Amino acid sequence: MRGMTRRDWTDKLRVYLVTDDRPDHEEVVAIVEQALAGGVTCVQLRRKQEDGGPMLKLAVRLRELASAHGALFIVNDRLDIALLSDADGVHVGQTDLPASLVKSRFPELVVGVSARSVDEAVRAEQDGADYLGVGSVYPTATKGDAVLTGLDVLAACRRAVRIPIVGIGGITVDRAPEVMAAGANGVAVVSAIMSAPDPKAAAAALAQRTSL
Predict the structure, then answer these.
(1) What is the mean pLDDT of the segment spanning 148-153?
(2) Is the pTM of this model over 0.70?
(3) Which residues are catalytic?
(4) pLDDT tens, residue by residue, 80-130
């Protein structure tokens, strides 16, 4: 994993920022830069509606920012963009690229997999996933098709697998401690930082609440 030990990059899952689909790249870069300064430890580029060329340019810029702050840089779904931008890893969903194939062909990449049940979590671990994104823990407007899993599923996944778990979906600063208490190694957020009036302060608050 780019010269890092498992413990090194597991620690970097604690405050995990997922970008949104706002069209202004400069705005995305500015928010991510502020968030990294506030304490974000992992950035995932998620752009479901963007062509490859513009997305690659944005990925390179975000990867440089993440590297400068010692944070992980992950690309959602797009293995090509992850490889071309020299990302640390790629995150795939249940209907995206098979984690087993990605991990077997590119063992140096950190591979994350979305899971909504214990069965999906166990299968992902067996397929070679390095970490799980479990949720939606709470109701969220960010992803319209998100399945509500709650804290109970996250806790059950924690008991069933050994790999790190990141809780995702509707997580706020106030909710972060209970997600960590349920067994998560970190919290992934979109609007809690991307839509915050002060992204740096929001990131700092999440960093503080996930360290309790």
Answers:
(1) 96
(2) yes
(3) 46, 114, 143
(4) 999 999 999 999 999 999 999 999 999 999 999 999 999 999 999 999 999
**CA separation for the pair 65, 122 (Å, rounded):** 33
Q: For 211, phi and psi rounded to 5 degrees?
A: -105, 5
- What is the per-residue pLDDT for 146? 74
Could you list the residues known to form a binding site, using ranges.
Answer: 44-48, 76-77, 96, 114, 140-143, 170, 190-191
Can you give the pLDDT at residue 1? 46
b/e 151-175 (16+ beta carbons within 10 angstroms → b): bebbbbbbeebebbbbbbbbbbbeb
Name the binding residues for Mg(2+). 77, 96
CB within 8 Å of 22: residues ≥ 6 apart:
28, 194
| Residues 15-44: tens digit of each pLDDT | 999 999 999 999 999 999 999 999 999 999
Taking the domain 6-209, which CATH number applies? 3.20.20.70
Kindly state the tokens that stand for 55: 């997305």
Domain boundaries, the chain: 6-209
Which residues does 196 contact at the CB level (< 8 Å), separation at least 6? 202
Q: Report d(CA 105, CA 136) in Å as an integer.
A: 29
